[in-house]
Amino acid sequence: MENIALIESFSEFKDDKLIDRVTLMAILEDVFRSALKKKYGEDDNFDIIVNPDKGDLEIWRNRVVVADGEVEDPNQEISLAEARKIEPDFEVGEDVSEEVKLVDLGRRAILALRQNLISKIHEHDNTNIFKHFKELEGEIYTAEVHHIRHRAIILLDDEGNEIVLPKDRQIPSDFFRKGDNVKGIIESVELKGNKPTIILSRTAPVFLEKLFEQEIPEVFDGLITIQNVVRVPGEKAKVAVDTYDDRIDPVGACVGMKGSRIHSIVRELGNENIDVINFTNNDQLYITRALSPAKITSIKLDEENKTAEVMLKPEEVSKAIGRGGHNIRLAGQLTGYEIDVFREGVEEDVELKEFSDEIEDWVIKEFSRVGLDTAKSVLEQELEDLIRLTDLEEETIREVVKVLREEFEE
Known about the structure:
By secondary structure, the protein is an alpha+beta fold. The protein has helices at residues 4-17, 21-40, 80-86, 102-105, 107-134, 205-215, 217-220, 250-255, 263-268, 283-290, 314-321, 326-335, 361-369, 375-379, 383-389, 394-409; strands spanning 46-51, 56-66, 77-79, 95-99, 140-148, 152-156, 162-166, 181-192, 195-201, 224-232, 236-243, 273-278, 298-302, 307-312, 338-343.
């Protein structure tokens, strides 16, 4: 048969893509039936025999012999005279099977067949890739940097699959060169057209959780369970751990002697500061642990509204808030409580919301975001610290400080 170009095409894909025999046969039959239907108007009277192992195929058209001059459907019927050119002993009413050569379809049809075959195999391949990576969502994956763009890094795995690491899924301190291996979590897989888009993330909390599973045997074995993970990627994270075995110290097991066990995780995350705390159903104790390293004097909980008023000595306040307000914000996310910090022994303080006539609400919310809810909590901070802690302009902060000072000078 004149099928060299076509057979070379599917043989090439069979070798490269490792498509199984049954799938190949189905794809080839589908491609040829589409071509036959286009040329003859229908394909139900054709038999297609595919032999992927030998790289060969046969097409047979089945027609019924009718008397000369009575052919109404040339695709379904053949005249007695034409039938006897194939076999001289054919009679009216008998079935005739005649092989169809690829050359009979025409050069243009053969080129279209080849292109359609390539397209179908790509489509099959993309579907398999989508299914494969869909099953890997939420799992750690490693791939190599192939191309660096402004908004994303394009990675390739060992199978040549393209994986995207967007800028907003990178840790701020991440810096990669072409050829570097990058580890992350398969965050999502979507089909855009027929092509799967695979998104990798290094900022998702589940990435840190999976790193714990990978690096700490007790977590992998299920002896220690991770109850919650919150992160400011590259800056700080809090991980609440628990165990059903009283003989195990879950925090000690995760951190290791002098931080030996958690060190590789910290390094992978760009020296992200990781606090590991014991989980508890006692909300008061949980908040106390979550605000570590600050030492709490007392806590007043409103369980219905999920708010907590925390009293600390003045020297402990900055520890509770943390750099950039990260510590108090993460403690709130970990416990599910909105935490307000108050200084022990400070009298006649005034909550910032009382100044709403003079200070805009969005400014008050920004101070509150970093744990500064009262006038004196703001006034006790240096100007440089307030600029560093908040996203406010220096001029705005100076105006706020002026308003607050006037309140206490009166």
